[in-house]
Amino acid sequence: MPDARRAEVTRDRSDPRTMSDATPSSTATLGDPMPDVAESSATDHDSREVSPVVATAPAPSVDAPPVGEPCPTPLVWQEVLAAYRTQSTAWELKNRSHRLVGRSWGTGRPLYLLNGFAATAEMSALTLWLLREEFRCVVFDTFEDGKSSKSRPTMSDFASDVLAVADHHGDETLNMFGASFGAAVALQTALEVPGRIAGLVLQHGFAQRRLSMSERMLAALCCRSSRTLSQFPWRRRIQELNHRRWFPPFDGTRFEFLVDSTGSIPLADLARRALAVNGFDITSRLGEIVCPVLLLRTEGEGGLEARSHAQLEQGLRGSRTEWMHSSGLHPALTHPHRLAKLLKTFFPPESI
Question: pLDDT per residue over 227-276, tens digit each?
């Protein structure tokens, strides 16, 4: 009997936990799928700003369990997602030209998880499940309302979304985890309201980015599109090449969740995020960020991510770096136990 079928037969349906998060892979891959092209190309200007980086991985730390420690109880993502949809509190609000649709789940100090460039709020469901007893987790998707699609968004607009959500929940101070685009939004927010940010965990963050001419043309074209990412040519093949290897090998459905969820993202919203990061540059202001910062690197990052990390590490003097091996660019889906453990360790109860 194949392993996947054997796992199905022995599954305990009384608890949404059966699939392992371990993926014994050590092969690196470059970048994200097409929408992350905006985050995967460096210009000559970027290269001059940062000294060359030797692509060597730091030694695993908090994400790597001690020798002899048992693997965490695995998760069945379908049941966790169902619990996320039924047990969390749904909300929606308007902020300037953005419509914010989100959910809050759990009790405890507030932890805001900001989407990566081509990610959705529900893709954090497995991690939220593991954090909900210690944190009140807040996630949301940002959509353009259509009335100001001709105006170019800025990173300050997206930081304003975070603050609008925090005000909606009555959070004077908050912790933030952001991946790629979400990490840049977190940095911008920390610059604008330093007194309200207790701590940051930034996965593949960046302090500056500039699109190539072809990327700018593609973003301008997609801004006028009414299609979703699922309709973009070769999208699935690109995601398979960039992400499939990092998912549990015996549960192909979890990768299908990534494909289906990202497929719902409007191309126009992705394009506007790309335009917002074009010309984004806060390198000279990184020293103004005073809250504790953890920089998170993962196996599967590309050269641009490595250079961006070096720039953040140099500018954020008090920051430290952690490494998640074998996790790829979506650890909230591929290895939620390890990501949750890292967040619990970095954001102690006394942080707020």
Answer: 999 998 889 999 999 899 999 887 889 999 999 999 999 999 999 999 99
pTM of the predicted model over 0.70: yes
Residue labelled with tokens 């996947």: 4
* Token pair for 176: 């933030």
Q: Identity (one letter) of the amino acid at 67?
A: V
Q: Using H for helix, E for strand and C for coil, what is the string for the chain? A: CCHHHHHHHCCCCCCCCCCCCCCCCCCCCCCCCHHHHHHCCCCHHHHHHCCCCCCCCCCCCCCCCCCCCCCCCCCCHHHHHHHHHHHCEEEEEEECCEEEEEEEECCCEEEEEECCCCCCHHHHHHHHHHHCCCEEEEEEEEEECCCCCCCCCCHHHHHHHHHHHHHHHCCCCEEEEEECHHHHHHHHHHHHCHHHEEEEEEECCCCEECCCHHHHHHHHHHCCCCCEHHHCCCHHHHHHHHHHHHCCCCCHHHHHHHHHHHHCCEHHHHHHHHHHHCCEECHHHHHHCCCCEEEEEECCCCHHHHHHHHHHHHHCCCCEEEEECCCCCCHHHHCHHHHHHHHHHHCCHHHC
**Amino acid (1-letter code) at residue 272:** R
Q: How far apart are CA 104 and CA 122, in angstroms?
A: 11
Between CA 199 and CA 189 the distance in angstroms is: 11
Alpha carbons 236 and 241: distance in angstroms, whole number: 9
* Tokens at 104, concatenated: 């809050």
Residue (of 174, 218, 177, 158) closest to 37 by Cα position:
218
Q: Give the tens place of pLDDT for each residue, 327-349.
A: 999 999 999 999 999 999 999 76
Q: How far is the C-alpha of 110 from the C-alpha of 92, rounded, in Å?
A: 18
- For the chain, domains (ranges, CATH) are 3-345 (3.40.50.1820)
d(CA 326, CA 60): 11
Which amino acid belongs to residue 303? Answer: G
Q: Tokens 């990061």 belong to which residue?
A: 277
Q: Are the beta carbons of 323 and 63 closer than 8 angstroms?
A: yes
Among 273, 301, 270, 297, smallest CA distance to 209 is for 273
